[in-house]
Design goal:
2 copies of one chain form a homodimer.
Chain A (H helix, E strand, L loop, with lengths): L6 E5 L4 H12 L3 E6 L2 H14 L5 E5 H7 L2 E4 L6 H8 L8 E4 L23 H8 L5 E4 L6 H5 L7 E6 L3 H11 L5 E7 L4 H18 L4 E5 L7
Parallel strand pairs in A: 1-2, 1-4, 2-3, 4-5, 5-6, 7-8
């Protein structure tokens, strides 16, 4: 377990994936700022998280204040709120920050099937994010294939990979270092940010597999060397 | 090792993936008919395969005769030949046959990057195949993520999953039974044939990962039950 000298903001941590991530990271010693559209909801989520991880450090702020609070900002919102959230964050994000975008444009966002994807003009949610953040803010895509349910179930031992896409290797390494604070998650460099259109679609694929096998599946990449970063 | 009471046709087995598949299946006791556009090339491939798997049963035929020879036909051709091959097979395929399509519409087919996909109007190569085969012929998509190099290297122990997409569960089970004749390959039901547009794109994703880690990666699905079929 690491020393806990790191902190992260999670925008959308009142949702299942963001909340599970907050729990796991806090348990690993990372200070977590939970962002929500309303500060009250964020504070509630922080309190709820604290009940589940009593030695965790949580705070809750509205999205703008939360996004300004840390160098690393995880974006974990439903796709239907993705563009609006990024518009609202424009005044809060600053050059040098890294946004780790976990958003998946499932067709469920427009009442379609969760096994189908929406076509995003930029190619993927993460590329939409990269287009919308202020200059100097980097976007890395990741965390799409980790089950929110398993992440939030602290008794469940994780054993799967997180595929990261981004245009700068140091950004991906930074995101990887955060993700690998969580026991059982390994971060894999999946290529440039444009590969996010494939990696994001893995969520739809997993949902299809989950329906068939009544499980919460994940992915592992075989054949990789021991040192990935 | 099974008794070898099964036989399969591989259209495009002079290519690396099809050839590796022929070797592995023949070693497991499956009789393999290799199809190629020219019977001579097919016979050459069959002889080459026989040298590598001396107790394997191989024969080489032109695509039409090869496709008619077995109930199960694996299609493993470059995407640029996919439509033409299926047009030429129309007179040879008959109701009740199953086509296991491993074709991936990589942008490399039109001199683009191998980490990028072409948009296929039907959604995927496999859906294009389903549209083009005669009525009563089923299409299952699979085998996109198995490295041709590793498949052809008989000394390499495989340990990865094959994701199958198709609209009828019995068809997928039939394809799974064939695939699982190969030691180290597990077949996973990934959903309806329309999911092939995601599964096919995993090849591009693996190529991107392979470039970064100088390896031949594959995928495994975590969290599945023991009995998949």
């Amino acid at each position: 377990m690491a020393s806990g000298d790191e902190s992260v903001t999670i925008v959308g941590a009142s949702g299942a994936l963001g909340f599970g991530l907050a729990l796991r990271l806090a348990r690993a010693g990372v200070e977590v700022v939970i962002g929500s559209r309303e500060a009250e909801r964020a504070e509630e989520a922080a309190q709820r998280a604290h009940t589940l991880v009593p030695n965790g450090r949580f705070s809750g702020l509205d999205n703008g204040a939360a996004a300004a609070a840390n160098e690393l900002v995880v974006l974990s919102v439903p796709f239907r709120n993705h563009s609006e959230t990024l518009t609202n964050l424009k005044g809060s994000l600053r050059p040098g920050q890294l946004v780790l975008d976990a958003t998946v444009p499932l067709a469920a966002a427009v009442a379609g099937k969760a096994t189908r994807m929406l076509g995003v003009w930029q190619g993927s949610a993460a590329q939409q994010a990269q287009e919308m953040v202020p200059d100097g803010v980097s976007v890395v895509a990741g965390l799409h294939t980790v089950s929110a349910g398993l992440l939030g179930d602290l008794d469940h031992a994780l054993h799967e990979d997180v595929l990261l896409c981004g245009d700068r290797r140091p950004d991906k390494a930074r995101a990887a270092a955060l993700i690998e604070r969580i026991d059982g998650l390994r971060a894999v460099d999946a290529g440039r940010l444009e590969m996010a259109r494939i990696v994001e679609s893995l969520t739809a694929l997993l949902i299809s597999i989950n329906v068939r096998y009544k499980t919460q599946a994940g992915f592992q990449v075989t054949g990789l060397p021991d040192a990935l970063w």
